[in-house]
Design brief:
By secondary structure, this protein is of the alpha+beta class. It has one domain. It has four helices and six strands, in the order E-H-H-E-H-E-E-H-E-E.
Length: 117
């Protein structure tokens, strides 16, 4: 029986102690620096999705780490944030972004620890 994953934010002070890969730590640092420069531009760059369907959709959904999102219209889209997570996440750690509300400007990037419940 497989269990559903749970996601817990990792305090940046504990990244090294918890074994967060340096590549993921660096990505969070650079992405947060980019937010400090122009959060609106970063949000648009990472959220602008391309609709995918057919065989491509099935292949992306079957990929073990790339994240495909569903749009409000029920379509599937591939965006920069899903590709970043696909490239950087590990079975234990995943990139996240905080927003004030759905479809609002990104506020902060961080790392989740993924565990089974």
């Amino acid at each position: 029986m497989s269990s559903n994953p749970t996601f817990k934010k990792v305090d940046p002070k504990h990244y090294n102690k918890m074994g967060v890969p340096m590549s993921l730590q660096r990505a969070v640092k650079v992405l947060n620096e980019a937010l400090d420069i122009d959060a609106d531009a970063v949000t648009v760059a990472l959220e602008t999705g391309v609709e995918i369907k057919g065989e491509s959709l099935q292949k992306f959904r079957g990929h073990p780490s790339i994240i495909v999102r569903e749009t409000k219209g029920g379509k599937s889209a591939l965006a920069g944030l899903g590709l970043l997570n696909g490239a950087l996440m590990t079975p234990r750690f995943r990139l996240y972004v905080e927003c004030e509300s759905e479809n609002s400007t990104y506020k902060k990037f961080g790392i989740y620890e993924v565990t089974s419940s």
